[in-house]
Design a protein that fits this description.
Layout (H helix, E strand, L loop, with lengths): L14 E10 L2 E12 L7 H23 L1 H14 L1 H7 L13
Antiparallel strand pairs: 1-2
Length: 104
């Protein structure tokens, strides 16, 4: 995604998943943390944010499941390639992909 894309800017009421890489001595260790946050001010009803946060929690849980379940990783990888083929090609053109679908 282009960093200048107006849709990429965090706005009030957004629920954001952040993938924070673990960097040691200027190099990525291959690990990262997944952080979840609602960005304020929140102007929608609490139930709406709770529902969105629930979906975000499920999405972030998929990250851990990718490492635990190679079949799920392969299924999700194939789905992603079909759904977002052009975006993935650009994003991962220089990434090495392990057999279980984990990027490093």
């Amino acid at each position: 995604m282009d960093a200048t894309n107006k849709e990429a800017v965090v706005r009030p009421n957004d629920v954001v998943l952040v993938f924070r890489p673990d960097i040691t001595d200027g190099k990525w260790t291959g690990k990262f943390k997944v952080l979840l946050s609602a960005y304020g001010p929140i102007s929608v009803e609490e139930r709406a944010i709770d529902e969105i946060m629930g979906v975000a929690i499920m999405a972030s849980s998929a990250v851990a499941l990718l490492e635990e379940d190679p079949e799920f990783a392969n299924t999700l990888f194939e789905y992603s390639q079909n759904k977002f083929a052009t975006v993935l090609e650009e994003a991962f053109s220089s990434a090495e992909i392990k057999h279980n679908g984990v990027l490093h």
